[in-house]
Amino acid sequence: MKTLIMVWIITAFFSVNNLYSQNVYWERLPYQFLYGNSVPVADTAGNIYIGNSGSIPGYAIYRSTDNGINWTKRVDTVSGYIAGVFCISVSSKGIIYASTSMGLFNSTDNGSSWTNLKSNASLIMTILPNDIMLTAGGEDISRSTDEGKTWTKVYNIGSRNYALSLEYNLASGYLYVSSELGLLFISKDNGVSWNQINPDVQILHVDRKGVLWGLLRSKGTLGRSYDNGASFSDLSPALNWTGSLAFDDQNNAYAGTYDKGVYFSSDNGKTWTSASNGLSSFFWIKYMSFDKKGYLYGVSGNDSVNYSPVFRSTSPVTAVNDSHEGAVNSYQLFNNFPNPFNPSTTISYSIPKESYVELKVFDMLGREVASLVNKEQSAGEYKVKFDASSLSSGIYIYSLTAGDFRASKKLMLLR
After folding, report:
1. In DSSP terms, which residues pair with 116 in a beta bridge?
2. Which pLDDT score is estimated for 31?
3. Dihedral (C-alpha) 169, 173, 178, 183: value to the nearest 10 degrees?
4. Which of 98, 120, 204, 379 is most buried by its number of CB atoms within 10 A?
5. Dist CA 268 CA 224 (whole Å)
6. What's the pLDDT score for residue 16?
7. DSSP character at residue 392
8. Do 204 and 176 form a contact (C-beta atoms < 8 A)?
9. How far is Cα 203 from Cα 189, in angstroms, rounded to an integer?
């Protein structure tokens, strides 16, 4: 058995030139946009929407039903003037809202037709779990309690001060509006009333634990706040952060930069590891988000011919221990993510029929260092978290055996 394991390891080691060429975690989707201008958003059915603000392939909102491979224009000939798409949101009822340069629109039929709800443009928007809507554009914050049919201006953030982000904290129930001048506006009553503080933070994000992350205006770096925005600690002096930030279901952070692609942190931003394999030269990542299946999407800044390529992780990156994803057609062992990693990573695989599955990790001498799965499993896709806290830095091999199928891949632990 040990001889067979060593054969797997040697085959895996010499099948590629280096670790990074084997583990490509981003793929460029075949469809390209001119000035892709909104964060990719998933609806309740898992379809993906993105706004385009250029003439190629056309000013419109586009939808993908196959994880970003193909896109169709979702705008009718009557309201076909939807241009300058700033953001897209989906309510709990599946209603799609698009904030554009022509005003706020909504669609109740998956984007086939659109209704103009208000004519003044709002740069940002959020929908609360109770479907109360808030928008911020220019100097005003507005609120709607009837699915966007009527609006009330609830607060003015000041002259020559523009709202940059509008975030809802699911953990505390607070709302936040960050602004160009670094002022932060907070509401504790679903947007009815607002208070102002001055943490000198511009773009703001809230992670899955309710902790605030923001762009420090005076430094241009990423900061983190544990006191509801009153103060921010500087986390990333080395990152040229764009303001794009996404969190997986384990609250690991993914940060987009202007010139270094995507960085990953599993320790609340204390340390960062590059997660840019497959981005080629498109290292300006201005928007990122997860879909319902755990794939991470990234919209790049314009390339040399002014396109905004859209990238997607080659496999789901959300880490659910031993999770079952559904029916599949073939045996596959996927690249672990993140890689390199410290101290944990997620290994994904699929089996097309009920099989006895063994998933193990070996060092480069063929010694088993971890047994992750050793049991009968039904057909489907699985994700297993591998915690290497007790291991030293280096290259390891993870091997999957399921029925007559065997496959091995490399992973790298960096301390």
Report:
1. 105
2. 66
3. -130
4. 98
5. 9
6. 29
7. P
8. yes
9. 22
Q: Which residues fall within 8 angstroms of residue 28, CB to CB, at 6 or more apart? A: 278, 280, 282, 309, 310, 311
Cα dihedral angle (347, 352, 358, 364), rounded to 10 degrees?
-50
Instruction: Round to whole Å and give the CA distance between 313 and 294.
Output: 9
Report pLDDT for 317: 72
3-class SS of residue 204:
strand
Question: Sign of torsion, CA 277 281 282 283?
Answer: positive
Q: How many CB atoms lie within 10 A of CB 67?
A: 15
DSSP 238: T
Q: What is the pLDDT of residue 205?
A: 93
List, in sequence order, every residue forming a beta bridge with 90; answer none if it has no partner.
96
Q: What is the DSSP string of 32-101?
A: EESSB-S--EE-TTS-EEEEE-STTT-SEEEEESSTTSS-EE---SSSTT--S--EEEE-TT--EEEEET
Query: pLDDT value at position 56?
Result: 54
- For 27, 300, 309, the CA distances from 283, given in Å and listed in that order, are 13, 7, 11
Q: CA-CA-CA-CA torsion for 93, 95, 96, 97, nearest 10 degrees?
A: -110
Task: Please state, rounded to an integer, the average pLDDT across all residues of the chain.
Answer: 80
Site of tokens 């009553």: 189
Residue 347 near residue 383 (C-beta atoms within 8 A): yes
pLDDT tens figures, 297-339: 888 875 555 567 888 888 777 543 444 444 467 888 988 888 8
**Predicted confidence (pLDDT) per residue in 9-24, tens digit:** 333 333 323 333 333 3
What is the distance in angstroms between the CA of the first residue and the CA of the last residue of the chain? Answer: 31
Rounded Cα gap, residues 313 and 277, in angstroms: 10
Question: 202-217: buried (b, 16+ CB within 10 Å) or exposed (e) per residue?
Answer: bbbbbbeeebbbbbbb
Question: Is the N-terminal amide bond of 338 cis, ω within 30° of 0?
Answer: yes
List all residues 6 or more positions away from 350 whose beta carbon is below 8 Å from its beta carbon. 325, 328, 330, 331, 332, 334, 380, 381, 382
The residue ranges of the chain whose pLDDT is under 70 are 1-24, 31-38, 53-59, 75-83, 236-238, 282, 302-307, 318-328
Tracing tokens 């392939």 back to the chain, one arrives at 57
Q: How far is residue 63 from each of residues 126, 208, 400, measured CA to CA in Å?
A: 20, 26, 36
